Amino acid sequence: MITQPEKGKKNLWATVKKNIAEKRNLFLSSLGVSGCVLLLRFGGLLQSWEWGALDQLFRLRSLETPDNRILVVAIDEEDVSNIGKWPINDKVMADLLRKLDAKKPRVIGLDIYRNLAIEPGNAELMELFRTIPNLIGIETLADPNSSAVPPPPILDEKKRVGFNNVIIDADGKARRNLLYWRTSYDRKLHKSFALKLALLYLKAEKITPKVLPENRQYVRLGKSILRPFDSYDGGYIRADSRAYQVLANFRQNQESFTKVSMRDVLEERIEEDLVRDRIVLIGSTARSVKDFFETPYSGKLFQSPEMIAGVELHANFVSQLVSAAMEGRSPLLRVWSEPVEWLWIFIWSGLGFYLSWRSHSPSRSALGILFLEISLIAICYIAFFIDLWLPLVPSSLALIGTAVTIFIYRAHRQEELKRSKEFLHGIIDNIPDPIFVKDRNHCWIVVNDAYAQFIGYPVENLLNKSVADFKPKYPAEIFGCREDDLVFETGLAREHEEEFKDSRGRIHYIATKRSLHKDAAGNLFLVGAIRDLTERKKMEEQLRSTAAELARYNQQLQNSEVRLRYEAYHDYLTGLPNRKLFLERLAQAIEWAGINNQSLALMFVDLDGFKQINDNQGHEMGDLLLKAVAKRLLGCLRGTDTVSRLGGDEFTVILPGISEVKNVERVAQKIVSTITQSFPISGKDIWITASIGVSLYPIDGKDTDTLIKNADTAMYRAKEAGKNQYKFS
Fold first, then answer.
1. Which of 243, 249, 495, 581 is the most exposed place for a label (fewest CB within 10 A)?
2. CA 148 – CA 165 distance, rounded (Å)
């Protein structure tokens, strides 16, 4: 028997409520898509895509007029070949600076390290450093990722030095310009190489930077205002925002500046007007020097990246700052605040929702979404012309994702309706799972035998009965009335897992799928299908227990692997690197020194008289002494140095990044003095001395075997000379 639903006002109000709920849920789905896009963005998963979109906007931007205020003097591969070595000697550098200074440039930027003398011609070069007032040199500031390279002392004394550190994004490209930096090493405020050149050039135009009183983080430079980069600017997520950086507004790479070779300057083949009153940057463009960077203009489809030399990158930074101050060209990309970007993303998600919901034709909806996507790209492109970086990728994902969600929802609803009609036309008694059909009053209209057997009542006791007929013995929740109401109110199918106690008192874990269906007369019914999950729940619990046990075993295996690897590379007694790890680190240090034109020192430390202590005091006392010596050696060195034990009483020390030999002498003397002091061990004072042999890279050798042999020989010479001292190879 089928009961008819109420008609009139109640039916109409129910229909209105259902339509409102349906659209509300769809709108919430749209917000959910936007929320997921924002989560992806904050998780950093869209960062590389947004960088790629930004790079594409740069490449699509129309060409700008070359900046004729800047001249790049390039030391190219032919120049390096003619000179015969790199770095070029001080005499050639002095000749180059003298010829350029004679043509009266406004600023000269030397983007080449000159912290060490490269004879011949050092005295001549130092004199030019003193007498050329508009010459700016470079230094590299130390940070966790790189060692410091000091500037020329004379230029540093005259405060004519800028740092050339460049911030590189995770994809290897430079998109930010670092202007000021107060490092944790010296707490001094440093200016970048590009900023020093730009300010010296602008000084003649009576333009100086001024901090805005209303916001001291903002700096006015001529016609522009500089705003510091924030960790979440644009498409960046948790980016490094230390010091004072800005999002760089790049010019095109290759044609933006006039470029001449060093040989053209030395052979007087350039006109004075090409240099007079300009910013002249001197730097290497030779591939062999490996001073190259990628910028937004580097990437090209189906081609390898087109990199630019470091001197060209700094020229770009200088040009941005000078153009900003004198012409009002923005030196940095502007971005919206985060709440405004969120609103922008939600708006495009809403547009996708509105268009997909209004159009019932999939083809028309697809064309509409395509039109909106093209419009979004056009808006972002136009905004980029006024130096505004809008979130293109997350907005596109929100637009398309919302449209796809609406399409899936419509298809799902239509398929459910079709399946429900086919189901109601069948005979549900042939289905082994418990099936029931209810009306709005929670009366059972049709049930199959499986359902009656499951809950423990005969079929005839259920038909045309409501839950109220079973009260107060069984509450309404036992038959899922609350879930039925939710399905009737929302019109959406629901699947619910719960505990169920049948009439015999047995507990079952069940999953009930409920959905609404209409018959040919338009009557609305709720059809439910039940699955008994009791056995599955038991298996899931067993699987969770097994998985936890496997995870524990896996962790034990990982811990064993870490321990074995540590033991393979470290001395069992002192915990220092053993011979194997020492040789690996020495080879790495030599390779790094060769690439970066650095020196390193290798020390062989041998304890004098250790055998007598071992024989007289016992091996246990000897082992304790070796541990104490290892600890003192570690206390004498930097965190970047390596101390290792080769065996017995032999230790080695690797000192990378050595700028002067006297620094090695200080370390060697410190080790000798420290070892000479008494060792309080087990209530006794043990005295011992050390003999040290030192070899230097590349002076005493360029490979591990040669350096080790020379350091060992020097150590034996120290012993022959009376011990308790050090000797160089």
1. 495
2. 10
Task: Let me know the angle formed at the C-alpha of 622 by 616 and 626, rounded to the nearest 5 degrees.
Answer: 150
The single-letter DSSP state of residue 11 is H
Three-class SS state of 351: helix
Separation of alpha carbons 253 and 42, rounded Å? 31
| Per-residue model confidence (pLDDT) at position 6 | 45
Over the stretch 555-590, which tens digit does the pLDDT of each residue have? 877 877 878 888 888 988 888 999 999 999 999 999
Cis check for the bond before 656: say yes or no (omega within 30 of 0): no
Cross-strand pairs, 167: none
Task: Please tell me the least confidently modeled range out of 319-333, 415-429, 508-522.
Answer: 415-429
Nearest to 162 by CA among 140, 133, 129: 140
What is the β-pairing status of strands 107-110 and 135-139? parallel
Measured between alpha carbons, how far is 228 from 357 in angstroms, rounded to an integer? 43
pLDDT of residue 11: 44
Residue 691's CB is within 10 A of a number of other CB atoms, namely: 25
User: Which among 449, 510, 515 has a CA at the least distance from the CA of 479?
Assistant: 510
- Across 64-188, where does the E strand assignment appear? 70-75, 107-110, 135-139, 161-163, 176-182
**Dihedral, 369, 374, 375, 377 alpha carbons, nearest 10:** 130
Distance, in Å, from the CA atom of 247 to the CA atom of 226, rounded to the nearest integer, reads 10
Which two structure tokens, joined as six digits, stand for 199? 């300010």
Q: Position of tokens 């020989």? A: 713
Q: Which residue has the tokens 């209004």?
A: 358
Strand partners, 48: none
Which runs of consecutive H residues, i.e. helices, occur in 449-608?
Answer: 449-455, 459-462, 481-490, 534-569, 579-595
Quickly count: other Cβ atoms within 10 Å of residue 154's Cβ: 18
304 pLDDT band, cuts 50/70/90, is low
What is the reported pLDDT for 639? 86
Per the structure block, which two tokens stand in for 591? 């390779």
CA–CA dist 365, 692 (Å, integer): 81
Q: Is the pLDDT of residue 297 over 70?
A: yes
Statement: residue 103 has pLDDT above 90: yes
User: Whole-angstrom Cα distance, residue 316 to residue 256?
Assistant: 8
